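Extended Data, panel c. Modelled sequence:
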Amino acid sequence: MIDKLCDYVIKKIKEKIEDMNEEKEVVIEFGVRLLIGEIPKIILLIIIGFLLGIGWYTVIMFFLLAPYRGATGGFHLKTHTGCMITTTILYLVPILLAKTIIITNNIIFYSMISVLAVMSIIFIAKYVPADTENIPILSKKDRKAKKIRAYIWLAILLTIILFIPDHIISYMFIYGIFLQNLTLTPIAYKLTNNKYGYEVYS
């Protein structure tokens, strides 16, 4: 339904532009799909968060974890419904876990951070950027830039986890980074019927 609406709007815009070229076509398609497809999902995610009583945590989680996901990549489901389910799991489940499973033991806390940091560094080195066949990242320069951004955002998130006094925020980022890391793996790609873009086109 949403894809058909996007295609219709893109078609109408193209009909009204006389000097259409490939570059403009890509920009138009990206902009329309972002406005019609992605922004409503973000709004719906935040609404669900407020309905569950975790609205502000959802806002914090999205705007700080999304850049990490954007840099690292990961599988994408091919339908808007599937994408919404994935988004909900990645951004809401960690918050619910953080509010439900309250761990106050410092040894466990710092052990979890240490394991997460090592896991993330290894996963970034091995898999990032985890592209898809629909949105491949083939340029060595772009791949290197994504990897560097992933390390930077990991450092930012780990700093927040370590120094913020709110334990719910700390643990929701621990669980969130862990889940995001799992979306990078070959097993996750196989289970969701995805393929790495660089493998398909290189």
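The longest helix spans residues 22-51. This feature is highlighted in the accompanying rendering.
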